[in-house]
Specification:
- By secondary structure, this protein is of the alpha+beta class.
- Helices cover about 35% and strands about 15% of the residues.
- The protein is built from 22 helices and 25 strands.
- The strands form seven sheets. Strands 15, 16, 17, 18, 19, 21, 22 and 25 form an eight-stranded antiparallel beta sheet that branches.
- A hairpin with a 2-residue loop joins strand 23 and strand 24.
- The protein binds adenosine-5'-diphosphate (ADP).
- Adenosine-5'-diphosphate binds next to strand 10, strand 14, strand 21 and strand 22.
- Adenosine-5'-diphosphate binds near residues 233, 266, 273, 302 and 360.
Length: about 725
């Protein structure tokens, strides 16, 4: 075993040297894979230690300083100061005079008390930090970062441990003055009236990651980039697409009588496996509950998953969206794997209802007599991702490929939901209104197919951060006992998220960014994508970050996918009224006029008909009249339609790019997304991939635009859900 592990490490070392090539097409396969030896002593921090050493720290800082200018933010040269002084100068008051990333807000100069919260400048006035005056002083001691944990719910234990490790200050019942960070257990709105600081949730994330909305967002991307988005199982939205689903399945069966595909049905707002069932015949769908049609997704069932110890398992990966604009994504190098508790068999009519065989949810399997609680990270029904990858590597599996495919899946999924999130963001925190900035930890549930292709099952906006589990300590006596595996992984993720969000540790290069749909300066891709990972922080003795930046690090490979964001930028631009999320008919006409899209063949009367037609199909009995109008998804459909009319001979993707270019040329420099420069159609068309179709082939009609139109006529789109049933800390 020891020798083998040695081999694996050598192999990893080799991979690492490959990874330096920033210009290559694929994701760096050396993304510090979560690989550890089962025999190695677990790192109590939850981080994998087989990463580049921290010795590079000071050199790194110097490198960063060299890359920037050698001036401090006040324009004073920093020569002669030791690296740590330069580093510390990075944060205090000078930082607070900067725009906060993603908000366009300038902290300094605001001192008013608003809604019981003080804005940042009050906070900073209490610090013992040097001011940006002519006589530059070395910093003495900075005040601890303050965290409001009053709404943290079940994340509280892990959060407390993290705050303690960082020597920050916790306010568990809230605080009258503003805190630097607010930790919410469910949604952005857990704590209203926050006007400064940072909140660990984005507005609209809960809604966007519900099963139907996620499926829709991915589907839009599948239309534009079918090969790149083949990691999501074919899905139909119920009840709207019932007819389409039945017809397609009937046709599959008729064309090959031996085919008997299986489908998994998932209620829209469901979690923890609740209400999920498998079917082999559309007739078995439970479409109505009581008198109500049930909103659900029916999805192709991945019938050949990768097994370990004959058991099906899935991966829970933690992903941090550090900033939406510019987009910054981090992936935790360590995750969890959740195992079924009954040996897997391919689905048959007989075994369809065996949940312990088919569903990997912790909350279900923990009820099975076979569930194994283990303190070890590489045995039991919940294990670390690294221990599983180690097992696979030991069997000769190319885990660097698997890991880079997983990174690609994560980045692409985030890109799919980003346009809608931006609409929510500008509605909740319009640029002119004081508000916090946001970040969020997401839980990605990923299944590995037998051929090692990762498949996205769902993205959880509130992944469980519980570090204890319920156990029967004596017959009939249940207690919450610590779960070492959960603690190892989750405390690392929370602590390092906090470190990355440390308001006093902002990089000097942080470019002020406007919020919402405003213009985006081009993203600056650091030459060394790892530099931040190794930055020291105030505690100084903390381990290397277990969160790894993947975007903007891999901007080059993925920016061509950010087309719908450009459509969203147009949409937001024409929304008009602050806080609005729907476009009215006049605004739509203004868009058409401003972008000069009407002509003698497409008159303003046709524009009105298009608006009414699409809006009607996307609108449902809206009780709330404020929500009348055209939402982003409907606007995207209208945009595809306009692009199809205008550039008939091109493919859908080319049509959309051409129309975007045309609209943006009429609008000037305000439009577009941050990666505007690299969003070229030719790049999009060049992009190769490794098509590995899932079980049910995605039909590819000759004209995607025609397909889009046909689809939109067949099915009524899903109503934007309201944040009614919010899921809190879901452990799957
Ligand atoms: P929930 O939010 O209720 O946990 P998921 O989408 O995560 O819903 O599905 C629950 C479980 O069902 C997953 O953990 C996985 O084991 C299984 N599952 C979900 N979708 C598929 C699929 N398309 N193919 C195979 N198994 C699936």
């Amino acid at each position: 075993m020891g020798d083998h592990y040695g081999d694996v490490r050598v192999q990893l070392g080799r991979m690492k040297s490959l990874g330096e090539d920033a210009g290559k097409e694929d994701v760096d396969p050396d993304e510090e894979m979560p690989l550890s030896s089962p025999s190695a002593s677990p790192d109590p921090t939850g981080c994998i230690t087989a990463v580049p050493g921290t010795d590079a720290l000071s050199a790194d800082i110097c490198k960063q300083k060299g890359k920037r200018s050698s001036k401090n933010p006040c324009g004073k040269p920093l020569q002669g100061f030791p690296a740590h002084a330069v580093k510390n100068f990075n944060s205090p008051l000078c930082d607070q005079t900067l725009h906060i990333k993603g908000t366009g807000k300038i902290l300094q100069g605001k001192s008013a008390e608003s809604n019981g919260n003080y804005v940042g400048v009050h906070e900073s006035s209490n610090t013992q930090e040097p001011r940006c005056e002519d006589d530059f002083k070395l910093p003495r001691k900075r005040r601890p970062v303050t965290v409001d944990t009053s709404k943290a719910k079940t994340s509280l234990e892990a959060l407390k441990l993290s705050i303690k490790e960082l020597q920050w200050k916790e306010f568990h019942t809230g605080r009258r003055a503003a805190c630097d960070i607010y930790w919410h257990g469910v949604s952005f709105h857990d704590n209203e009236n926050i006007v400064s600081g940072q909140v660990n949730k984005f507005p609209g994330m809960v809604e966007m990651l519900r099963k139907i909305n996620l499926s829709r967002a991915v589907r839009t991307m599948q239309e534009l980039f079918p090969e790149e988005y083949d990691f999501y199982p074919r899905s139909w939205i119920l009840p709207e697409e019932y007819q389409q689903f039945s017809t397609e399945i009937r046709m599959v069966k008729e064309s090959d009588a031996t085919e008997s595909p299986t489908f998994i049905v998932k209620p829209d707002g469901g979690s923890q496996g609740d209400g999920i069932y498998l079917i082999r015949d559309p007739g078995d769908l439970k479409l109505v509950v009581g008198a109500q049609a049930k909103q659900a997704v029916v999805q192709e069932y991945i019938h050949k998953p990768l097994l370990i110890d004959k058991l099906k398992f899935d991966i829970r990966l933690y992903v941090l969206i550090k900033s939406m604009q510019p987009l910054e994504i981090y992936i935790a190098k360590e995750g969890l794997t959740r195992f079924c508790t009954e040996p897997y068999q391919e689905p048959s009519q007989k075994n369809l209802s065996r949940v312990f065989m088919h569903l990997t949810n912790y909350s279900l399997n923990v009820q099975s007599g076979n569930y194994v609680h283990s303190d070890s990270q590489n045995t039991g029904s919940k294990r670390t991702l690294s221990s599983v990858l180690y097992r696979l590597a030991a069997k000769g599996v190319d885990i660097k490929r698997v890991w880079s495919d997983i990174i690609a899946l994560v980045i692409k999924s985030v890109i799919a939901v980003l346009p809608d999130l931006k609409v929510h963001y500008q509605a909740d925190i319009p640029p002119a209104k004081p508000g916090p900035t946001c970040f969020q930890i997401l839980g990605f549930d990923i299944l590995l197919m037998k051929n090692l292709k990762p498949v996205l099952l769902e993205v959880n906006s509130n992944p469980s951060m519980r570090i204890e589990h319920e156990q029967e300590v004596a017959p009939g006596v249940f207690e919450y006992v610590p779960s070492p595996v959960d603690e190892q992984v989750k405390v690392g993720v929370i602590r390092d998220t906090l470190r990355l969000m440390d308001p006093f540790n902002k990089k000097l290069t942080a470019t002020p960014q406007p919020r919402g749909g405003g213009s985006d300066p081009l993203e600056v891709i650091p030459a060394d994508g790892d530099s931040l990972d190794r930055s020291p922080d105030n505690a100084g003795n903390l381990p290397p970050l277990c969160l790894k930046q993947v975007y903007p690090k891999y901007t080059k490979q993925f920016s061509h996918l950010r087309l719908v964001e450009r459509i969203a930028a147009l949409f937001i631009r024409f929304l008009g009224v602050k806080g609005n999320m729907r476009l009215g008919p006049t605004a739509f006409r203004t868009f058409i006029r401003t972008c000069k899209l009407s002509n003698s063949n497409f008159t303003m009367a046709s524009v009105d008909i298009l608006y009414i037609d699409i809006t009607r199909r996307w609108s449902f009995a809206l009780a709330d009249s404020r929500e009348a109008g055209m939402g982003l998804q409907a606007f995207v459909e209208a945009f595809f339609n306009l692009a199809g009319r205008r550039f008939k001979s091109l493919t859908l993707r080319e049509q959309v790019v051409s129309l975007l270019d045309l609209c943006e040329s009429h609008l000037g420099p305000q439009s577009g997304v941050e990666d505007r420069r690299s969003l070229s159609c030719s790049r999009a068309l060049q992009r190769g991939s490794r098509p590995q179709a899932l079980y049910i082939p995605h039909p590819r009609p000759s004209s995607p635009a025609a397909q889009r139109r046909a689809t939109s006529q067949d099915c009524r789109p899903h109503q934007r859900p309201k944040p009614r049933t919010l899921r809190a800390n879901v452990e799957n």
